[in-house]
Design a protein that fits this description.
alpha+beta; Phosphatase 2c, domain 1; 6-stranded antiparallel β-sheet; 5-stranded antiparallel β-sheet; 8 helices
Length: 330
């Protein structure tokens, strides 16, 4: 821990010894020599103090980063490459410097009612937004397991936010579920429409019945509606937050997400998102200025198994039957 400070003191002490020796050899007046040595000692002590303060700040920053990583794993749990019947990839970037989490949120959970997922964006930034994101994710994960109806999941999140948020706070979100093969259910609460990829075509899934963001339902008579989207083998769905679509380049042009997705589309969601995220960073000049989340899931085609050839079986019974058929044919 103290190696850096000891190194500074060692160099300073060596400089003092050399200075004293050189001054004595050249008959430097004692007064002048003492002034020079005092200046060297002061610089040495100041350097050692600065080194100690820097080491302390580095230890504090390392501790803060450790806490941030722990919080990230608790809130935005790592998503495996396969969740239920889906291949999944996730990319997340926090806008705050040195931050690992922000106001954007996502979760995918396998439940008794199929895979359910949420992607959302909390109004605001910083610690208050992180607290709201934690609240939404906690209620969603619990409700996703308990409620058979996806609208009831959304209702529980809404009621929790209504009790805990200020009147001007809200969360935009898309909540989706896959209760049975080929059927994707979706509830859009004031969020950007997901992008459905079918073949080479990228189509936004605009809500048929728009609903207000979570936390604002009491201010509107509109209620969320359940939208059913066919989702078959080979189809993909991209859910994202406005930190992606509102990212601007030096010319103040927005990033064209649909066109970028079409350029980098492939059968591996992780490769698609890696290329898409890199292009997004290149568009903005290297660093995003808002929280951004990308979640891509793909329903892979079912593997086709070849019918087994009984003659290929090495069992005595099969060999005997095969031999009899061959003798009969002869």
């Amino acid at each position: 821990m103290y190696k850096r400070q000891l190194g500074v003191l060692g160099v300073g002490l060596l400089a003092l010894v050399l200075g004293a020796g050189i001054g004595a050899r050249h008959d430097v007046p004692t007064t002048h020599l003492l002034v020079v040595l005092a200046a060297q000692a002061t610089v040495t002590l100041a350097g050692a103090l600065a080194s100690a303060l820097r080491a302390h700040r580095e230890r504090v920053l390392a501790a803060v980063r450790s806490v941030a990583e722990t919080a990230q794993h608790a809130l935005l749990r790592p998503v495996p490459e396969t969740v239920g019947p889906f291949q999944v990839a996730v990319r997340y970037s926090a806008a705050a410097a040195e931050a690992r989490i922000g106001g954007d949120l996502y979760a995918l959970v396998p439940t008794p009612y199929g895979v359910r997922m949420i992607v959302g964006d909390v109004r605001g930034k910083g610690l208050p937004a992180v607290g709201t994101a934690a609240l939404v994710l906690g209620v969603f994960r619990e409700a996703a397991y308990d409620e058979p109806d996806l609208l009831d999941v959304v209702g529980r999140v809404e009621r929790s936010l209504a009790r805990n948020l200020a009147c001007d706070d809200f969360v935009t979100a898309v909540v989706a579920g896959y209760p049975e093969p080929g059927r994707l259910e979706m509830v859009n609460c004031g969020h950007a429409p997901p992008l459905l990829i079918r073949g080479d075509e990228v189509v936004p899934v605009d809500p048929v019945r728009p609903a207000p963001p979570l936390g604002l339902r009491a201010l509107s008579e509109d209620r969320p509606g359940l939208q059913v989207v066919p989702f078959g083998e080979g189809d993909q769905l991209l859910l994202y937050t406005d930190g992606v679509t509102e990212a601007r380049d030096a010319g103040r042009e927005f990033y064209p997400l649909a066109e970028g997705l079409a350029r980098h589309l492939c059968d591996e969601p992780s490769r698609t998102l890696a290329a898409l995220h890199q292009e997004l960073l290149d568009h903005v000049g290297g660093r995003l200025h808002d929280d951004a989340a990308l979640v891509l899931l793909r329903k892979p085609a079912a593997a086709v198994t070849e019918p087994e050839d009984p003659a290929a079986d090495g069992s005595p019974v099969v060999r005997s039957l095969t031999k009899r058929r061959e003798q009969g044919a002869a």
